[in-house]
Amino acid sequence: MTDVPEAPHTGDAQRAHAPHRMDPSGAGQHAVNERLRARGPAVPVTLPGEVEAYAVTGHAELREFLTDPRVAKHARHFTALQEGRVPEGWPLAVFATVEGMTTADGADHRRLRGLVSKAFTVRRVESLRPRVAELAASLLDALPRAADADATVDLREHFAYPLPMGVISELLGVEPALRDRLHHLSGVLVSTSSEPAEVIAANREIVQVLAQVVAARRAAPGDDLTSALVAARETDGDRLSETELVGTLLLMIVAGHETTLNLITNAVRALCAHPAQLALVRGGSASWDDVVEETLRYDSPVSYFPFRYPTADLAVGGTVIPAGTPVLAGYSSAGRDPRTYGEDAAVFDVTRADKRHLSLGHGPHFCLGAPLARMEAAIALEALFARHPDLGLAVPEGELTPLPSFVGNSTRTLPVRLGG
Positions of the region Disordered (predicted)? Predict the structure, then answer.
């Protein structure tokens, strides 16, 4: 990647192709990815609200882009936002405007990440393993009671969602009574199909709910991350503002369960659609960890993640992205890039030797919760198929409705038959 202040031939080539209009419905994401990769590893796109942006779709180019020091995360670099050209109630606003470590740069990012990282050390995550297994077993005990007469149940709602939501809530000290509401509100905020009024109302309410969590932990501290963050703020107020505290909780609630929810859903869907791959795992030719990594590559739980902003005109794969333009990180596209994975890039193969991927990020903003997400998914999948070895999709895979978003990548529901 190089600075290219003047590139007339590149500009002419870009103008010859109209920007791709991102579909808020999230329909056919992998087919869209193929079309975008055919146009190049970085392509102009139009976001909801007629906001101009770019998407980086190639694996090698995205990997380099994510570590380029001329690429920022803070919205002060988002030209259209700073100039007032982004509409009120914009469905992607939360990814740009919330104050927290995922929207911070430099020293601010290191400060905020350092405060949170203590909750995600290898030792702390490993200590959660028995509790994750206990929660998974409890949910599986209840699963048959949620099924209808022919043993069909929405696995997303009754297993893939409550497991990671329960884990992150316990880690943060969120009361059980607030969890479903937080899940609903985070769903509105990450959906690219939400109406402006919905976004404004959801953003206002989720901040209020999280302020309740902070107040509860301030009044009665516990062995949880929120209590630790409150203590850090009150011990050294310069280290963490109240806005950053609530923003950090918001980001952790969303990222801490939505990603793992989609990962578990996508893995079960892939295994049910590819029974020979499931047989390889049961036969010992691959592990549940292999399933998790291949799912992350093959069907990333996050498709196009907002936002990064070049601080100077930047050439990515021969395309110049102007300074201040919001850029989507195309994780699901990069995961099936044939230039990296070969002709079988679109094949689900748990024995694949090269399972490297970017689905949990790369560089300074690599997902802090990655070890926890991986552990949760592996435990969930092993426990699920041990309890229900004949589990299968209750409808053809092609009839599953996608999430209404090009940010999240999964399905609204996952109806399965539990079998014997």
Answer: 1-29
**Domain CATH code at residue 154:** 1.10.630.10
pLDDT digits (tens, 9 = 90+) for 34-59: 999 999 999 999 999 999 999 999 99
Closest residue by Cα to residue 262 from 94, 23, 35, 26: 26
Parent domain of 34: 2-417
Residue 141 confidence (pLDDT): 97
Angle made by CA atoms 94, 400, 189, in degrees to the nearest 5: 10
Task: Enter the tokens of residue 209.
Answer: 């709910």
Q: What single DSSP character describes residue 390?
A: T
Nearest to 7 by CA among 319, 306, 288, 327: 319
Domains held by the chain: number: 1
Q: What is the pTM of this model?
A: 0.93
Q: What is the pLDDT of residues 199-224, one digit of tens each?
A: 999 999 999 999 999 999 999 999 88
* Secondary structure class of 327 (helix, strand, coil): strand
Give the tens place of pLDDT for each residue, 114-144. 888 877 888 888 999 999 999 999 999 999 9
Gap between the Cα atoms of 230 and 15, Å rounded: 50
Q: Which of 407, 346, 396 is nearest to 25 (CA)?
A: 407
What's the token pair of residue 200?
């404004």
Number of H helices, E strands in the chain: 19, 12
How does DSSP assign 9-63, residue by residue?
HHHHHHHTSPPEE--TT-TTHHHHHHHHHHH-SEEEEEETTTEEEEEE--HHHHH
